[in-house]
Amino acid sequence: MTATSSLISTLPGRSYTDPAVFAAEQDKIFESLWFCAVRAGDLGKPGAFRTVQVGRESVIVVRGRDGLLRAFLNVCRHRGARLCSEESGEVRRTIRCPYHAWSYDLDGRLAAAPNLARMPDIDRVAYGLVPVHLREWLGYAWVCLAAEPPSFEDTVTYAATERLGDPEAVARYRVDELALGRRVVYDVRANWKLIVENFMECYHCATIHPELTAVLPEFAGGYAAQYYVGHGAEFAERVEGFTVDGGPGFPRLPDVSQDQDRRYYAITVKPQVFVNLVPDHVILHRMFPLAVGRTVVECDWLYHPDVVASGADVSRSVELFHRVNEQDFDACERTQPGMSSRAYRDGGVLVPSEHHISAFHRWVTERLAV
Predict the structure, then answer these.
(1) Is the peptide bond before 271 cis (omega within 30 degrees of 0)?
(2) pTM of the prediction?
(3) 191 and 295 Cβ atoms separated by less than 8 Å
(4) Which of 252, 202, 207, 194 is nearest to 231 (CA)?
(5) Are strands 263-269 and 233-234 parallel, antiparallel or unpaired?
(6) What are the backbone angles phi and psi of residue 307, rounded to the nearest 5°?
(7) Are residues 318 and 189 in contact, defined by beta-carbon separation less than 8 angstroms?
(8) What is the pLDDT of residues 191-250, one digit of tens each?
């Protein structure tokens, strides 16, 4: 299909269904760029770890005895066995391979192995775990498998500046100091790009998001917050908080400015993070693309520590975006089968208010051409 002057062509259907395309995305995107892996607060004690699928690799993120987070490939250097099969846990002293008992300190150094004393020539650092680059931002550990990672500032933190127009705007929410109030994990039968595209636009909002448009009425017009640089969608006049019924939420986060009050901001941090900012809490999505047609999404609701410590009921604010998530993911799962249809062989079209999705498509295409 040739797009008219009002319509913009999309990626072809095979971009969402072809395993070869997905393999290229794993290589050129998820294994080459910064990937938001773990909430730092989940690994509170030395020895606490989580394993994360990053592209085709399993990565261990672990808290060291010095309090620092480190990341390693989840592979024993002896015969390649997977070290940790559990999604999360805690080790006492070392990470021990269940196959031949090679053991590694929490800093990755080879600590012990059967008969190791008879092999004094072994370099315990060189034969330690393979390290993965790690940075912390917004209270999360971001990892990069590339030998030479791209600039974190240019590819990750810049997304907030690009979206909000002010590098300090996201800092006022002090996301790294917030506490986890709720986490919901969604197993979505759809390609990761469909989820990104859905999040970036609101052309569908009037159709499938009645609760959201009741709180943010301008979304009913089809223009997403991300359509405008620096713009935050304003709460409806009678709405008191970002809750499922529009009732009161919690006190405004201490450093959020008056201009940011009663507004919703959304940020896409490519390739797999969505940050949603409202006055009293933050919602952060992390996507884990596991197959061409399957994506696991972890959604965290983050509140001021006093709110969580008090045992306050956060269900009304959680329920609003939980419904939005379920509505969105149902739409993505409804779309995924159509990507295999001959009707979508050459792709579909975007309306003008979805122009930023076209920019995302160009980004994906350029990444795969690297």
Answers:
(1) yes
(2) 0.95
(3) yes
(4) 202
(5) antiparallel
(6) -65, -45
(7) no
(8) 999 999 999 999 999 999 999 999 999 999 887 766 667 889 999 999 999 999 999 999
